[in-house]
Amino acid sequence: MAGRFEGKAALVTGGSRGIGRAIVEALIKEGAEVQTCLIGRVQSKLIKKLGIIDFLVNNAGTTIPNTEFVDIEKSTFENVLDTNFKGSFNIAQVVSKCMVLAGRPGVIIDMSSMYGLKALAKNVPYSVSKAMMEMLTKVMALELGPHKVRVNNLNPTFIKTDMTEPFLNNKEFIDPILQRYPIGHFGELKDLLDDTLWLLSDEAAMVTGTSVPVDGGFLIS
Hints:
InterPro entries: L-xylulose/Carbonyl_redctase, NAD(P)-bd_dom_sf, SDR_fam. Belongs to the short-chain dehydrogenases/reductases (SDR) family. Helix content is 42%, strand content 14%. The protein contains 7 helices and 6 strands. α1 crosses α7 and α3 runs parallel beside α4. The chain is globular and about 50 Å long.
């Protein structure tokens, strides 16, 4: 039985590990042809080499946790923004231009965070970079909508992966946060994958320019 993305081509940034790798595997299982790159910095010649792209998942990201605002080095701040915002901006611009020129529908997902919608203490670069992506996504959706390209943010909570294990095992850090979850637990990879595939699919054909929290109710508590 063919998957729902048979004949579609996808590009996933940061697809070599963690959430990105899981998204790549899920898309392949659904029949898509998937390419990955480590970070969001990509040249137009690479896109031409890849050919037509139907889906872009802007997943690459980084963070420098536990640094107070008054102590942040300018270089540290800029390094996080370079990957989380500038890298995502650059690749989205190149890919969306290819989508428009190809004259076929496309979908872009910017993997944001619940901390793009809520301030996170001791992590200014991360929160600021994700908040910047929130507005970029909205503007992209406005401009690309007439070309049948949808653009949305996904805003996950902590998702259990090898990368997040050190945070989730730090009870002093995690327990106060967990107490704010109405459903009482953090997210699993499957939770995020289901919403990612839904946003890419025609089932979400009327969803664009929005942020979709996958946060277990954290933002309403």
